[in-house]
Each structure stands twice: as C-alpha cells, then as structure tokens.
Amino acid sequence: MLIRPTRFFFTEPIVTAVSVMSSVVFASVYLQTEGLTVTYEAFGFSERQASLVFFAWIVGLTLTIPLRMYDWRRVSQGIQRNEEVRPEDKVTGAYVAAPVLMAALWWFSWTVPPVGASISPYVSLAAIVLVGACTNEFDGILQGYLTDSYATYAASANAPLAALRATLSGSFPIFGRQMFTNLGSNIAGSVLAGIATIFCFIMYWFYKRAEITREKSKYAVHTGHEGDEKSDA
C-alpha cells in the first residue's frame, strides 16, 4: 500500500513538485493563523480584531472564479474542436498564482510592523486577499492536475501529497507564533516570500517541461502522437 506512493514521490518529478508546493502553500495557512495575530496586534488590534483578518482569505477565494471560467471555456472550446484535452490545459490558475503569491508575500512582509508601523494595516490586508486566492489555486488546481495526469494511478499519485500536507499542516502551527514573535513579522513573512519565489522557478519548469515529463512516465497518461506511439510499444 505504501510502496507505490513512496516510489512516485521519489521517482516521479511531477508528483514531487506538486506535493511539495501544494503542501507548503496549504500548510502556510495554518502557520499564518498563529503568526498574523502577532502581526496585527502590533498594529494595535485587539486579539479579537486580529482574528478577523482571516476573512481576507475568504474574500480572496472569490478572485479565483474568473480563472475557473477561463479554464472551463478553454477546455470546452477544445472539445468542440475535437481536440484532445491535456492535463496541462487546466492549470492556468497555478501559473498565474505563482508570481502573484510571491509578490503578495513580499508586499505583506514589508508593509507590516516594525518596518511598516506607519503604513495603514489595510495595505497589508490587500496582500492577504491575494494570498488567499493563490492558496486556493495551488491546492485545488495542482491536486486536480495529479489526478488528470495519473488517472488509474491517481490514488498513488495523490497519496504523497495528502500525507505531506497533513504532516506540515499539523507541524507549522506549533512554531508559527514563535516564528513571527522572535523573527519579527518582516523577516518571518520574508521567509515565506522567499519560498514562494523558489516556487516561481519550479512553476516555470512546470510550464516548460511538465508535459514532456508526463509523456516519459510509464504511469502517467500520455496524450498526442508521442503518447500513442508509447502505448503501442
């Protein structure tokens, strides 16, 4: 039961990349539930007022609707033209989310106390709205991509993601408050922004090489002529 998911995580680059990115971005939400309270109490918010900051994430979820509509329209048009729909045709949101998440986290990191103590808290709240939108894209879109790419083996491909996401989500809150208190919100936020910057490079690789990598895998779905030739073989 554990052998194939473990093998996929260490030998399938797509599974590795998606599992790490999606898990870290998703688990960072739990880290921020602890850290953002520290950040906004420094603005003078009460503990109850600081907890209301998390509604900004909910607002961010609505920003993903246009991307879902775009992907749906793109796939529908391909079907109408009798074109084969590739898994890569459904991940536009993740390509957009990567640079936006990076920018939003850098934006947040340097518009909060102590460096941004004189800046209105609503400036950094706008960044959190974008973080919420991007978190939804990384979590939902990339997991869907794994399912589309591995079809019959989707359970084994998603298992490493589920395990890593659960582990990190349970671990991050343990040190979230200490991280933002001891490092300060500017540095703690910059750590998250730095990770998001690395994810931008991974998503660039994803854009350039994901389809080729998928076609070379003996477990993933093959599309196009190259996939047909391999299936015949």
Task: Write a structural description.
This protein has 233 residues and is mainly α. It has a single domain (3-224), classed as MFS general substrate transporter like domains (Growth Hormone, Chain: A), CATH 1.20.1250. Helix content is 80%, strand content 0%. It has 10 helices and no strands. It is globular and about 55 Å long. Mean pLDDT is 90; it is low at 225-233.
CATH superfamily: MFS general substrate transporter like domains
- Structural class based on helices, strands and sheet pairing: mainly alpha
Mean pLDDT level: 90
Our estimate of the beta-strand percent is under 5%
* CATH architecture descriptor text: Up-down Bundle
Assign an overall shape: globular
**Radius of gyration in whole Å, from Cα?**
19 Å
Instruction: Tell me the count of domains.
Output: 1
Number of E strands: 0
Order of helices and strands: HHHHHHHHHH
Helical content (DSSP H or I, runs of 4+):
over 70%
Query: Can you count the helices?
Result: 10
In the CATH scheme, what's the topology name?
Answer: Growth Hormone, Chain: A
- Using the coordinates above, name the CATH class: Mainly Alpha
- N- and C-termini, Cα separation: 28 Å
Main location: membrane
InterPro entries: MFS_trans_sf
GO molecular function: transmembrane transporter activity
Keywords: Membrane, Transmembrane, Transmembrane helix
